[in-house]
Structures are given as structure tokens and as C-alpha cells.
Fold:
Amino acid sequence: MTVLAVVGATGAVGSTMIEIMDARQSVPWSEIRLVASARSAGKVLRVRGADITVRELAPEVFDGVDVAVFDVPDEVSAVWAPVAAERGAVAVDNSGAFRMDPDVPLVVPEVNAAAASVRPKGIIANPNCTTLSMVVVLGALHRAFELRELVVSSYQAASGAGQAGIDQLYAEIAAVAGKEVGLRGGDVAEVLGGAGLDFGPGTSSPFPAPLALNVVPWAGSLKDDGWSSEELKVRNEARKILGIPGLKVSATCVRVPVVTTHAVAVHATFASEVSVDEARAVLASQPTVVLRDDPATGQWPTPLAVVGGDPTCVGRIRQALDFRNTLELFICGDNLRKGAALNTYEIAEGLAAAAPEVLAA
Structure:
């Protein structure tokens, strides 16, 4: 029997993980510990039919724990995931604190599950939600056809910026509802300003421009040569997960007025010719991928069709007109489920199912 600790249990991702644990009974955890900040300690949450009191984050909460999943900000994970590992737990971290650490495996169970068994620091990292929205599909295609190059455009939901992103989008939608806006470039900004909503650097908004009735070609923080942190994550994390250090990747990350579920348009080049039918056959055989690809009847992935579900959905599969050995695809994945809580929990499930000597490695 195995003891699980959920750190950040009262947050948005932690709450989603509890929903997933309630729905998935594959692991009979002998004990589940819910852990959060002092502000949330003492709350009682119902998990798998039992009332569990949330504990305050402290070193001793990890004593006797086999697997500790972290759904907390980077700075919290950076401090506490090593503490959990020192106390004997395998730490599975959903933040960005350890993703590119060469001594920390970056794991997507459908793609590189074996990597979880080699963890020198006792920590396993969960990828960024944008990367996760596409890598299950790309992993299957890479195994079959050998991926060489990627050009990616993301359409990222407001919830990718956390609860603040969701709150900002809803507030903006409420402010513009029923207003005659959009005829001039400044109309939306004027309406939002009149409603007391600001945006851009130095404001409370996580977005650099209005998101309601708009598309913002920016997600993350500014890095060298005009790239954003989100775009570099797609490049670096895809290389690490797929095990292709020299994979050519170019990404443009865009924020769209969708609450939850990221979408990604992918231009993927392979080592040899691959037909649409061959690609569809590979993807249709994947248990966690849903093929939704019949434009003639309006069948393609959309965030509204995918939100709240566990599978990754793929469609609009076409051979590129002017590029050899290249497919075009459109992929959607719920960024709060597979993009965060579900993948983290699937890693934990895999650890619990492993032999004791593997778990203790």
C-alpha cells in the first residue's frame, strides 16, 4: 500500500486532481494527505468518500509518504520538492521549477514513462500545459515516422494564466456585454477603462492587452531576441520529452478569449513520407487520443468540445501542400486536466504500480 500527499490541494489544479482521484480508482492509496499553506490548513475536503483535513505545509507532513504531488507555484516547489525527496518521497512537480534540470526527468506517461525510473534528485517534473496539449499526439507520430521539425502556433486559454486570468476574462466579457464595441481599435480599451479594468505591464491583469473580443500574440515573459518564455518552453520541453535534442522547433504562443483548453496548430516534418491515412491509423490506435477529423460534417477539435475531458483531441490532418514529408494538424487538450493535474496524477499512478524497489530507487 502507498501513501500519497497532494501539496496545493486547495488550488485550482489541486481541486482538479481531487476530482480525478475520485473518478479513477486504479490506485488504492492507503492514505491520502492534503497539504496547503497556513491560510488553507484546517479546511476539510471530501476525497473518495472520506473527509480529510488539510495540513499546513511543513517538513514532517512528508514523513512516511511514498509519492508527493506538487500543484503549487515555482518558488514553492523549488523549496519544498527537495524537502519531500529528502524525507523519502518521490516528488512529482507540476511547476516549472525543475523541468529543464538534467537530473530531473520530464515525463508524459504515454511518451516516455521509463524516464520516471531514473531520478537522481528524487523529483519528476510535469511539462508545461502547452507542450502537453500536443506531445501525446507528436509522441505517437514520432515513434512511427521519426519527427524532424516542428512549427507550432498555440491558442492558449485564459486559465493558463491561473485564476487571475479566468477572473480577468470574465470581468472583461461582463464589461463589454451589450456594448457596441469593436468598430474602432480603441473601443474595447475605452469600455474596459470605464469599467475600472486595466491591462498591460504594471497592472493587475495577467494579459498585456484586452482579451475580450481580441487575440493577443503573447504568453509568458520576455526572453532574448523577442521570444517569450512560453515559446521557449514548447521548444525545450518537446526536445526533452521526445528524446530529440536537435529537434528543430519554432513556436508562436497566442492568448485567446477561451476560459479552458489550449489549442495548437502543428506543422510537423518527418524523416520520410507519411500519408494522412497512415497518421490517422496511428492516432486512432492511441488510447488517450481522440481522432475528430471530418471537415465535411464539421468534425474537428474545439476547446468547447474538449474541455472537461481527459483525452487529447486531434483533427484537421492534412498533407502540407508545399513541404515534403510534412503534416498539418490541429490539437486540443484541457490545460487544467491533461495539461496539469491528470498528467501529474498519471505519473503518480505509475509509481504506485511499480515494484517497491523501483518506487524506492
Remarks:
- The chain has a mean pLDDT of 94.
- The chain has eleven helices and 14 strands.
- The radius of gyration is 21 Å.
